Amino acid sequence: MNEKIPTIPNIQSLPKITQKQLVTEFMTEKLGDNYETIYTDGSKLQEGETAAAFYCMEHKLGVGSKLSNAHSVLSAELIAMNEALNHVKHYHNNDKTTIIFSDSKSNLQKITNLKIGDNPDFVTQQLIHSIQFCRQNLYKTIKFQWIPGHIDLKGHDAADRLAGLTARHGRQTTRSELDHPDAKQIIQKRADNLNKAAIERMTESHGK
Ligand SMILES: [Zn+2]
Q: Looking at beta carbons, which pairs linking 202-206 to residues 24 or more positions away fall under 8 Å?
């Protein structure tokens, strides 16, 4: 698991064009030949519409999933990685190492810092399960790699655009899973609104 592009510290302080150049050099020089790449991204629009998407370079395939508005963008990014792994499980039965790219540093750090005995949210558990499945059943290595966002990298751009389009125009299936942290936030928000309304009513009646 690499949440940094190795050997390039503070890459985000460099101009976009240099970032792109360094990332491309890194891929050709450091990763070797026997690997395949999938780019992932999540999107949440201002109005709340949310989607996850991945783009597989091997199959030249982009897949977007519209999610419930209740998902945070962090969940969406994690779900995108999960969907990429599900695709790998079914269609990448080969000996290549799969590298899954994400620009979500905090998710990658969260996964890297997981310890035995931790009880992470369900999407993270699914992710761990899929990595183990690929390792044990397909003898594949799965690596996660952070890349800076919006540097004009073809595969990442495709995932980014697809996530945005799916959020805006996609249709959600009836099945919806919501993680504990996101659900908690919504309940909290609703409770805050109810409290606010109650306080407003109280102040109103006091004012009379
Ligand atoms: Zn593929």
A: none
Ligand 1 centre and the CA of 70: distance in Å? 29
Quote the pLDDT of residue 8. Answer: 67
Cα of 71 from ligand 1 centre, angstroms: 25
pTM over 0.85: no
| CA atoms of 111 and 120, how far apart (whole Å) | 9
d(CA 19, CA 28): 14
As a dihedral over the C-alpha atoms of residue 14, residue 16, residue 20, residue 25, rounded to 10 degrees, the angle is -20
pLDDT for residue 208 is more than 70: no
Tell me, in angstroms, the distance from the centre of ligand 1 to residue 83's CA. Answer: 11
Ligand 1 mean position, distance from CA 152 (Å): 21
Strands 50-56 and 61-67: antiparallel
Could you give the C-alpha distances from 16 to 82, 153, 191, in angstroms and in order? Answer: 28, 10, 43
Compute the distance between CA of residue 163 and CA of residue 80 in angstroms, rounded to an integer.
Answer: 9
